[in-house]
Amino acid sequence: MAAGGEKIAGKDLPGRTLWLNARLATLDPALPGLGMVERGAVAAEGGRIVYAGAEADLPASLRAGAETVDVEGRLITPGLIDCHTHLVYAGNRAHEFELRLKGASYEEVARAGGGIVSSVKALRAASEADLVRETLPRLDALIAEGVTTVEVKSGYGLDRDSEIKALKAARKLAEARPVAVRTTFLGAHALPPEMNGDKAAYIDKVVDDMLPAVAGAGLVDAVDGFCEGIAFSPEEIARVFDAAKALGLPVKLHADQLSNLHGAALAASYGALSADHLEYLDEAGVQALRDAGTVAVLLSTVFYAYNLILSGQQALVAKPGEIMLFQNLCITIILGVAAPWLAVALPSGLWLPLAGVTALSLAGQFLMSWSYARAEAQYLIPTEYSAFIWAIGLGWLFFDEAVTWTTLAGAGLIVASCLIASRSNPKLAEPIEAAV
Ligand SMILES: [Zn+2]
To answer: Which of 31, 72, 150, 250 is the most exposed, fewest CB within 10 Å of its CB?
Structure first.
């Protein structure tokens, strides 16, 4: 049926296909939440969706001659958009995570020549083909999660030719995979080492040389910057944004991530597409974003492992007993405040098992605090997650909780993947050099 028809990426497009028995996230504003349609259908013809809605309302004409797929109640959503990635890079900086676990702050890592600057060294040494090859597995992981459009930033080249190389590599990704790529020029990401601390001179280069070159080569959809004490001031970012505006390019900003420099308000004043991070955003920043229609992009995974970093840092400065006392004191105070309204009397039959649970959890807490001061986090994280397995076993033994194979398989997968990940990176990267 597709013979002689339309083609995408050299492939014949199928004729008409129907996906039935689906849970559809339609995002229809007339419906609450995600606009879910519980028994939904999607029809596609020649590579385009021609119907998405209730199966009962599917026009009979679309059923005729269609190839039908029963998705057995699975969820179908619109393609996901990842609007903030630094997907194109060379090497990796996993060793810095270890440094941070040992107590170094993001700023200390950056000032010691790590952070963005160590990525710059690796990217400059790589070829465009190297970058595409190293990036494709990361892109494939995103595609497997349902991403159909991905934004890719430059910002690890920090000179004209390296930035062009990174942006070209990003554009090549769209030829290699069925995904839409939008490229962002992030020249004002960090100060390259050869500028010897002269930020003003580097911003001159960004504005007068790099930006006109990447824009002239048609490699840029938007212009980004990093507004922060360890990067560029609001005044320096404003110069980059003025230059972008003069070229008719939209802007976005890494704003208020480590401190509040009013970056969100700055981005909003340029009608930015988005202001990203925003951990230190204040009320005035919120208002400015709202009034300008600038999207707030929150990057929760940046802080995903932050509790592990805090555990590591605490373990270095306090004894396990002190950490436990402090943590439990905080919880006691918080719960104590609510106790007059919410506390209930314990049935006497539960006293003994609850005392056992308390003793076990305190012992676990003590041992983990003790371990964080002694072992590397890569060995401790699988141990932390083994709590799932202990919980399943104890729940079954003491509380008659049913153990399903899916629970066991899930817990096993999490712990096994932690073990594999932590043991397959024996030598992650060269040590960070001291700053000169
Ligand atoms: Zn970023």
So the answer is: 72
Q: How many other β-carbons are positioned within 10 Å of the β-carbon of residue 173?
A: 22
- Which residues, given as ranges, of the chain have pLDDT below 50? 1-9, 426-436
**Contact between 221 and 182 (Cβ < 8 Å):** yes
For helices 306-317 and 377-385, angle between their N-to-C axes, nearest 10 degrees: 120
Ligand 1 centroid, distance to 19 Cα (angstroms): 37
How many A from CA of 26 to the centre of ligand 1? 29
Please give the Cα distance from 289 to 273 (Å, whole number). Answer: 10
Give the model's pLDDT for residue 425.
Answer: 53
What's the 419 CA to ligand 1 centre distance in angstroms? 28
Question: Of 258, 256, 205, 206, which Cα lies nearest the Cα of 234?
Answer: 256
Q: What is the pLDDT of residue 430?
A: 32
Give SS3 for 366: helix
CA of 44 to the centre of ligand 1 (A): 36
For residue 113, what pLDDT is reported?
A: 67
The pLDDT score that the predictor gives to residue 92 is 78
